[in-house]
Amino acid sequence: MDQIKNFYETILKSSHPLILSLHLLGKAAPILSYLLGSWFIHSFAALFILVILLLAADFYLTKNISGRKLVQLRWWYDSMGQAKTPFTFESYKQYPAGNPINPIDSKLFWWSIYLTPVVWAIFGILCILKFQFLYLLLVILALGLNGWNAHGFRSCDKWEPGQDSGNNSWIQLPNLSSLENLSRIA
To answer: Which of 128 and 11 is assigned the larger pLDDT?
Structure first.
């Protein structure tokens, strides 16, 4: 009980306690739904849809709201090839010194960003060991969304203003607006 009280007090020391709480809830909700959903939802399709919707909401919340408020980072990917680089970053580094980043916000944000794909990877290994390939599809989607967010924020944090944002990426999706990148897929 003391651990819950300490965690609650830590959240209250945050600069944005509501956003931090929603961020952590957004990370925990798909995992808990995946683990406990089969007890309450007897249809795999309904569980699949519920977890995917929770993952999509978490992806949006993390990418567009909590990343901007908690660690002052924002990124997006240009899939149509309109920009000269596929990734575009906004960072606290490119603006005059403003409010400092709260260390509690930063620590909990980064721990949740990196820990969530690890949890989904463990679920994936368990799905392979149990031969649950339909659940494996769900886990791969979850791992992809969480991994993509982790990669985007990691790249954004390492980015320096004035640098070309797209060339230092270890993963790049093909340009879908034309057929010029089909050779990269092959």
So the answer is: 128
